């Protein structure tokens, strides 16, 4: 989102609303070519689940933001159950330069990236190409990690639900979404769900502990 004028709840929620409303409303072509739905094998045998369920347990959606800052930059959303590792993260991938000066063919199209991870660890990871020591001009991928809580550290930290409960008691709505934000979210989601239910995107299957492959 754009930088708020201050850290008040109304200002931050307004900037979030503006960002969400700039999400492109997907048409049927974009849904067919830029979304994927799948269900892990065994889900239908789960207690309380209908044996003939066609509910997806994994999704992948490709979209974009229509504002001036992010127009033309692909935005991908992915999530699911029974994928093995519990992971929550946001990955920012930088554009590849038009003129590449990388000497190694195998790393010619490498793109630098920053990963903001929330689970299983709260950390920021930067991946970039760097020149190897020595006289030859060779490069290799390096990583720089920042951990909010070092392994084994006894630093006290506030649980996210603890923070929400305290904000609720104090009447601070910053971390709570407003009606306009929810409407903006469903403006993106509704057409996708409708197309999925109409069979425009087939339901695929995957094994528990794996992540479905995405080829677009």
Mind explaining what this structure looks like?
The strands form two sheets. The chain has a four-stranded mixed sheet with strand order 3-2-1-8. The protein has a four-stranded antiparallel sheet with strand order 4-5-6-7, with no helix packed on it. Helices cover 23% and strands 25% of the residues. By secondary structure, the chain is α+β, with helices and mostly antiparallel strands. The chain has one domain: Dihydrodipicolinate Reductase, domain 2. Helix 1 (9-21) runs parallel beside helix 4 (179-197). It is built from four helices and eight strands; from the N terminus they run ααβββββββααβ. A hairpin with a 7-residue loop joins strand 6 (123-131) and strand 7 (139-147). The model has no long low-confidence stretch (mean pLDDT 89).
Question: What top-tier CATH class fits best?
Answer: Alpha Beta
Identify low-pLDDT runs. none
What is the CATH architecture assignment?
2-Layer Sandwich
Percentage of residues in helical conformation? 10-25%
Spatial gap, N to C terminus: 26 Å
Largest sheet: 4 strands, mixed
Averaged pLDDT, please? 89
Residue share in β-strands? 25-35%
Question: How many DSSP-defined strands?
Answer: 8
**Radius of gyration, in angstroms, nearest whole number:** 21 Å
Number of DSSP helices? Answer: 4
Shape: globular
Give the ordered list of helices and strands: HHEEEEEEEHHE
Can you identify the CATH superfamily?
Dihydrodipicolinate Reductase, domain 2
The total tally of domains equals 1
Main β-sheet, spatial strand arrangement: 3-2-1-8
The name of the CATH topology is: Dihydrodipicolinate Reductase, domain 2
The structure class reads alpha+beta
